[in-house]
UniProtKB/TrEMBL annotation:
Source taxonomy: Bacteria, Pseudomonadati, Pseudomonadota, Alphaproteobacteria, Hyphomicrobiales
Needed co-factor(s): (R)-lipoate
This enzyme's EC code(s): 2.3.1.61
UniProt biased composition (Low complexity): 94-104
PROSITE patterns: BIOTINYL_LIPOYL, LIPOYL, PSBD
Organism: Hyphomicrobium album
Pathway: Amino-acid degradation; L-lysine degradation via saccharopine pathway; glutaryl-CoA from L-lysine: step 6/6
Similarity comment text for this entry: Belongs to the 2-oxoacid dehydrogenase family.
Assembly and binders: Forms a 24-polypeptide structural core with octahedral symmetry. Part of the 2-oxoglutarate dehydrogenase (OGDH) complex composed of E1 (2-oxoglutarate dehydrogenase), E2 (dihydrolipoamide succinyltransferase) and E3 (dihydrolipoamide dehydrogenase); the complex contains multiple copies of the three enzymatic components (E1, E2 and E3).
Cofactor remark: Binds 1 lipoyl cofactor covalently.
The protein's name in its UniProt record: Dihydrolipoyllysine-residue succinyltransferase component of 2-oxoglutarate dehydrogenase complex
Length: 423
């Protein structure tokens, strides 16, 4: 009796996925709920667990193939223990000893055929390709490898220079070596040194959506800077008490989410989107927080952020960051965002122009904090400054609204008491 392994329901609007990696191979023993295969969608990467214990008897779809929801991936033979699976296979025959003469030949590191130029030189020199160690990708024999193999070893005792019949000259430059006597190294085989890696479904979708955003929206970016002294002081004064009370560290993202909420309420166009010939103003605030992972950029959404405390926002952002790095985010975690915040400062970015997360009309870019000279009360002083960038869709957000939004964010961050008073 066998249990089928099928593609599970992957989420709303997702109808297909790409088989990324099989964690088991045919004939391996598996346990129930053990990860069997990784599926890549245009939003997330999910692992399909084993529906039952037994032996992976059949793999129907290989890595890199595209499958639809409900498609058959393979089957598990039930009631077969791992030991039984192993015993069904004949024991491998002991490897025969290799002749010692063969061991003296250079080992061929791959079955890659020699490059065309190398094959020509091998034929001209009468050398067997098996006697040449290749330096190309996967051990491919290149043209220069053949040259090195047939080059004669230098004589240990070079002959004395021939006596010249003419007397030595003084004050004259040495004669240049004729060009035909110079050994010009062969150009490297660039194709052999390249590596091609298939784009993941997530990376393909990111590329397509970013290009669609550029083609559709009239994207502009406006900039401002913010003095982070007040936020840094508040964080340093209360971070230990905050963590002790709420069980989560006090970071910067919570302050920025709170500041953006105040600005979005003042400038509702930044929280809206265009749908055909209509503008949809959203009277709710789902803030997307961009997170960079090895698989690409994902944007989980802090839903109803205006109803959450600073501690709740920090806890949600921390949880999303951990799950994003572990590949544990679900489809529902990334749907419905109305505005996005991205923090390039964690990678050292000083200034950038973030691209819209369509169909949203605005995205705020944070950057690194660094001390810069500023004028305060007629004095030049050093302050921890950060550049802010707001990219927006000029079809719906006017320039004055974009500037007003950034000024509002700046005011809230430079005077965090406004959060408490909602000013």
């Amino acid at each position: 009796m066998a249990t089928e392994i099928r593609v599970p329901t992957l989420g709303e609007s997702i109808t297909e996925a790409t088989v990324g990696k099989w964690f088991k191979k045919s004939g391996d023993a598996v346990k129930a709920d053990e990860p069997l295969v990784e599926l890549e969608t245009d939003k997330v990467t999910v692992e399909v667990p084993a529906p039952a214990s037994g032996v992976l008897d059949d793999i129907k779809v290989s890595e890199g193939q595209t499958v639809s929801v409900g498609a058959l991936l393979g089957a598990i033979r039930n009631g077969a223990a791992a030991s039984e699976a192993k015993s069904d296979r004949p024991a491998p025959a002991p490897a025969a000893a290799k002749p010692t003469a063969q061991a003296e030949k250079p080992a061929k590191s791959s079955e890659m055929p020699p490059s065309p130029a190398a094959r020509k030189k091998l034929a001209e020199a009468g050398i067997d390709a098996a006697d040449v160690v290749g330096s190309g990708k996967r051990g491919q024999v290149l043209k220069e490898d053949v040259g090195a193999a047939k080059a004669p070893e230098p004589d240990a005792s070079p002959a004395p220079p021939a006596a010249s019949s003419s007397p030595p000259t003084r004050g004259l430059a040495p004669m240049p070596v004729p060009v035909q006597h110079l050994r010009v190294p062969a150009p490297p085989n660039d194709a052999a040194r390249e590596e091609r890696v298939r784009m993941t479904k997530l990376r393909q979708t990111i590329a397509q959506r970013l290009k669609d955003a550029q083609n559709t929206a009239a994207i502009l970016t406006t900039f401002n800077d913010v003095d982070m002294s007040a936020v840094i002081k508040l964080r340093n004064d209360y971070k230990e008490l905050f963590e002790k009370r709420h069980g989560v560290k006090l970071g910067f993202m919570g302050f920025f989410v709170k500041a953006c909420l105040q600005a979005l309420k003042d400038v509702p166009a930044v929280n809206a989107e265009i749908d055909g010939d209509e503008i949809v103003y959203k009277n709710y605030y789902h803030i997307g927080v961009a997170v960079g992972t090895e698989r690409g950029l994902v944007v989980p959404v802090v839903r109803e952020a205006d109803r959450m405390s600073l501690a709740e926002i920090e806890a949600q952002v921390t949880d999303y960051g951990k799950r994003a790095r572990d590949g544990k985010l679900g489809i529902e975690d990334m749907l419905g965002g109305t505005f996005t915040i991205t923090n390039g400062g964690v990678y050292g970015s000083l200034l950038s122009t973030p691209i819209l997360n369509a169909p949203q009309s605005g995205i705020l870019g944070m950057h690194r904090i660094e001390e810069r000279p500023v004028v305060r009360n007629g004095q030049v002083v050093a302050r921890p400054m950060m550049y802010l960038a707001l990219s927006y869709d000029h079809r719906i957000v006017d320039g004055k609204d974009a500037v007003a939004f950034l000024v509002r964010v700046k005011e809230c961050l430079e005077d965090p008491q406004r959060f408490l008073l909602e000013l």
